[in-house]
Write a structure and sequence with these properties.
Rossmann fold; 4-stranded parallel sheet; 10 helices
């Protein structure tokens, strides 16, 4: 078993811990205008959380890639999601943004970012040795969902089911992978496609489900696997199946479905003779030269 697989399988216990620990007030106060930033995987978790926070009534919430933060806007709170706390774009963004309060949600205590923010939440128990992120982002999102008052008990049991059951498809049967989502699961779809690219060097795409009809569906065919995270819009499954593609849907919590995708990406890498613990051209953190 690879190191990545070990970390994937550790998630139920980490989610359980994240859902039972108190969430700080500076993340749960209502009415604050918030910007959530990240890079790569963390950006997609920021995207998902921003939708969840607004829909839960906690206040206007934007998200952005740390390298593309909005200019000239003031926020009550900026929340930076970063596993290492060393990513150059995150550090530069926190320095540049106009905010009353800055918060880092990270896996590493004492990282460079922590000296630049007002508050730090450290999930050191969810840190990873792997380059490809799996358990830290899902644990961070579990903590944030808990802070919004969500009942994460069903997500936890679904995560256990996602790890115990067989994979819903054989990656060797496909060479084109598409992940779709709606609302907060769009970020999860983007993360799912990223896992396939990082781990298996696969042709993987991701879109808002309703927008998939507007062009991208044209390249779907018999070797395509289209995976819906969450509930598919009416009629979409039938339209995609009409291209000859295989469509996967499920009843698990979407975050647990992402765990299935993590397993699937590792299996795809192994089927292609790749080592998911050592993905091509990637490092644990992107630190740019001055």
């Amino acid at each position: 078993m690879t190191l990545t697989e070990d970390e994937i399988r550790s998630q139920p216990e980490l989610w359980r811990r994240a859902s039972t620990e108190p969430v700080p007030d500076f993340l749960t106060d209502r009415g604050h205008r918030m910007l959530v930033i990240g890079c790569g995987t963390s950006a997609f978790m920021a995207m998902s959380y921003a939708v969840l926070r607004e829909e839960a009534g906690y206040g206007e919430t934007d998200w952005a890639y740390a390298s593309e933060v909005p200019a000239g806007r003031h926020y009550d709170t900026v929340l930076a999601l970063t596993r290492s706390g060393t990513t150059t774009e995150i550090i530069d963004a926190v320095r540049a943004l106009d905010a009353e309060t800055t918060v880092a949600l990270t896996a590493v205590a004492g990282a460079p970012l922590t000296s630049l923010v007002d508050h730090t939440v450290v999930l050191d128990y969810a840190d990873e040795q792997s380059i490809v992120q799996t358990r830290f982002p899902t644990t961070a999102l579990t903590l944030l969902r808990t802070g919004l008052g969500a009942d994460t008990g069903s997500a936890l049991s679904d995560c256990e089911a996602a790890l115990a059951g067989p994979l819903p498809a054989d990656p060797a049967d496909h060479d084109h992978f598409v992940f779709l989502g709606t609302r907060w699961t769009i970020g999860l779809a983007h993360e799912a496609a990223l896992k396939m690219r990082e781990s298996a060097q696969a042709w993987a795409e991701s879109y808002p489900a309703m927008d998939y009809r507007h062009g991208p569906i044209a390249v779907a065919g018999p070797r395509s696997l289209v995976w819906m995270l969450g509930t598919p819009p009416p009629g979409l499954v039938e339209e995609v199946e009409g291209t000859g593609a295989r469509v996967l849907t499920g009843t698990l919590d979407p975050l647990a479905q992402l765990v299935q995708v993590q397993r699937f990406a590792v299996a795809a890498a192994q089927a292609r003779g790749l080592d998911p613990d050592h993905p091509r051209a990637l490092t644990r953190s992107v630190v740019l030269a001055p």
